Amino acid sequence: MGNDSLKKSSQNASENEDSNQLFLNSVARRRNFAIISHPDAGKTTLTEKLLLYGGAIQQAGAVKARGEQRKVTSDWMELEKQRGISITSTVLQFDYQDFTINLLDTPGHQDFSEDTYRTLAAADNAVMLEDAAKGLEPQTRKLFEVCRMRNIPIFTFINKMDRPGQEPLSLLDEIEAELGLMTWAVNWPIGSGEYFRGVIDRRTKEVSIFTKADRGKEAAEKCFLLNDPRLKELVENELLEKALEELELLDEAGSGMDQDLIHAGELTPVFFGSAMTNFGVSPFLNAFLEMAQGPVGRLTEKGTVDPLEPNFSGFVFKLQANMDPRHRDRVAFIRVCTGRFEKDMIVSHARTGKTIRLSRPQKLFGKDRAVVDDAYPGDIIGLNNPGMFAIGDTLYTGNRLEYEGIPCFSPEIFSWLRNPNPSAFKNFRKGVNELREEGAVQILYDRDQAKRDPILAAVGQLQLEVVQHRLENEYGVQTILEPMSFQVARWVDGGWPVLEQVGRIFNCKIVQDAWLRPVLLFKNEWNLNQLLEDHPKLHLSAVAPVVSGVEPLSL
Fold first, then answer.
1. Considering the domain boundaries, does residue 104 fall inside one?
2. How many Cβ atoms are within 10 Å of 276's Cβ, its own excluded?
3. Percent of the chain whose predicted confidence (pLDDT) is above 70
4. Which of 405, 344, 338 is closest to 376 using CA atoms?
5. Both 122 and 74 in a single domain?
C-alpha cells in the first residue's frame, strides 16, 4: 500500500512538472504587438502582408478592395469596407515558426486615436510605421508618446521604399532628433523608388533581393552574401556602393545594438521595405520575433505582477458590439496577463465582486472567431458580454488584484445627439449605452436630467459619423447631430465640491460624464486659460481619472 501511494505521488509530481514546463514554454513563445502609424502610411497593408508571410491567409487584399479582390481581413465593419480605412481595433492571432503571435490592429485615422490608446494598454511591443517620403507625421508622434508613457519597445518599419522618398540617413536623424529615440538600422536599403533593389542585413551581411510578385501574392526572395559575384548581375554597382558607404558611416557614428535598451523603449531597431510589394516584410518579421520582448508584467494596486504567476488574471481593454450582425453579439476583449486561462473556468470580477463562469471564450481573427480551450499571458481572448464588463475591468482567480485602469482622453468636438422619433427611444437608448460601453465615443450629459439627449464627445468628426451609421444599421435608429461650439474639455480635480466652492464661472458650459463627474467645456484654449487665471486654485485635467467600483450612468 505504501509503495502504491509513493508511486501515485511520484506520478502526480511528474505530471505537475510536465504541466509547469508546458506553461513556461507556452508563455515563452508568445509575442504580442500593435502597429501605430499616421493615416495612409500603409498600416493595414503591412498587417495583411504579415498575415500572408505567417501563413494565416493565402492572398492579401488591397486597402481599397475592388471587384473580386478580397476585403482586408482586419477591416470587418461595413463602413470600413466602404471607405477603405480601419476605424476600429481588431485582434489577429496566428502561429508562425515557433511563435504564437497576437497582432493588435489599430485604427490609423486620427479621429479614432482613443481606441488606439486603449489597445496599446494591451500591447507588449509596438511597430511604428513611417512613410519614407513623409517621415514622422503628427499622429505617429502622438502614438509614440503613448508608447513612451507605457515604456513599450518600439520597432520602426520605414515603408514605401519603392517610391521616391527621403534619404534613409535623414529619416534616422529625424527619429533621433524629434523623438529622442536612439536608432539601430537592422537592414539597409539598396536604392529607392524605381531603383529599390532590396536590403542588406547588417548582422548577417546577407543581401535580400526581391522580385515583384502578382498583386497580393508573396514575393520571391533571393539571398546572397555581400561578396557573391552574382550580385553584380542583379544590382547596379553604384547603388550597392552607396548603400555600403552609408553602412560604414552608421558603423562609425551610429548607436550600437543593445537588447536591454530596445526593451526599455530607448532604442528602436529600424527596418526598410515596401509592404505593398512585399519588399523587406519577411526579414522584418523574422528579426522582430527574435528581438521583441515576450509577455511582461502589468501594474496593479499591489505593484507589478509577473506573467509567470500561476493564478489566472487579465483585464478588459476593449468592448465591441455587433461584430456579427446576425446575432447582435457583444464581445469583451481580454488581455491575459498571468496564469493559464481555461474554458469554463470560474473567475472573480474585481469591480463588482461577483464570480463568473467563462463558458464561451473565443480566439479572434478579425471578425472570425473560434472557441478556444486555453490561453496564456500575451494572448487576447474574446468573451461574450451580456452587459457585465466595462473597459478596464480585471478578472482573476486566487487573491484579489486589480490592474490599473485605462483613462479617458480629452475630446475635441461635441454634438447633441437627437432622436427625432420618440417611438424608437428604446432602441436609441440601447444603442447609445452599448456604444458608450465599448468606447466608440464619450457620452456627456446636461446637468438637467429632464433632458434625454446625450452629448457625443469625440476626438474627430468621423467618430460621430460612425456612431450615427451604427445606430442606423445596427439598432434601426435614425438620429440628428447638432454641433456645439466647444473645442476643449477638462475634468475638475476634486469634483463637484471643488466646483461649488469656486462659485459662478463664465465662458464655459458645465456638464457631467457617465460617472457623474463635472466636465467643463470651453470654446477655445483662451477661455480655458482665462478661467485658470481668474481661479488659480482650480485644478483641471485633460485626462479623466480612472474610476473603480462605480457603475457608469446609462441613458
1. yes
2. 21
3. 81
4. 338
5. yes
Range of lowest pLDDT (404-408, 485-489, 515-519): 404-408
How far apart, in Å, are the Cα atoms of 489 and each of 323, 387, 416, 516, 541?
Answer: 31, 28, 15, 15, 9
Asked if the structure places residue 223 within a domain, the reply is: yes
DSSP characters over 427-478:
HHHHHHHHHHHTTSSEEEEES-TT----EEEESSHHHHHHHHHHHHHHH---
**pTM strictly above 0.70:** yes
Grid cell 523574422 — which residue? 286
Distance (Å, whole) CA 148 – CA 489: 24
C-alpha cell belonging to residue 373: 480551450
Residues belonging to the chain: 555
Residue 235 lies in a domain: yes
pLDDT score at 489: 93
Percentage of the chain exceeding pLDDT 90? 45
Q: Domain with 197 in it: what CATH number?
A: 3.40.50.300
Quick one: cell of 422?
420618440
Which amino acid appears at position 117 of this protein?
Y
Which of 291, 308, 336 delimits the end of a domain? Answer: 291
pLDDT at 229: 86
Q: Are residues 134 and 224 in the same domain?
A: yes
Do residues 71 and 206 both lie within one domain?
yes
Angle between helix 138-149 and helix 113-120 axes, rounded to 10 deg: 30
What integer pLDDT is reported at residue 482 of this predicted model?
95
Torsion angle (degrees, nearest 10) of CA 394, 395, 400, 401: -30
Domain that holds residue 277: 27-90+97-291
- Residue by residue, DSSP assigns 240-278 as HHHHHHHHHHHHHHSPPP-HHHHHTTSEEEEEE-BTTTT
pLDDT given for residue 89 in this prediction: 45
Contact 67, 147 (CB under 8 A): no
Burial label for 291, CB within 10 Å (0-12, 13-18, 19+), is middle
Cα dihedral 489, 494, 496, 500, rounded to 10, equals -100
Give domain status of residue 69, yes or no.
Answer: yes
pLDDT, residue 84, reads 39
* 83-125 tens-digit pLDDT: 433 334 467 888 888 999 998 876 654 545 567 777 888 999 9
- 77 half-sphere exposure, CB direction, 13 A CA radius: 21
The pLDDT, as a whole number, for residue 121 is 87
The CA R_g of the chain, rounded to the nearest whole Å, is: 26
* 452 pLDDT higher than 90: no
CB of 34 closer than 8 Å to CB of 101: no
* CATH code of the domain containing 468: 3.30.70.3280
Across the chain, mean pLDDT equals 82
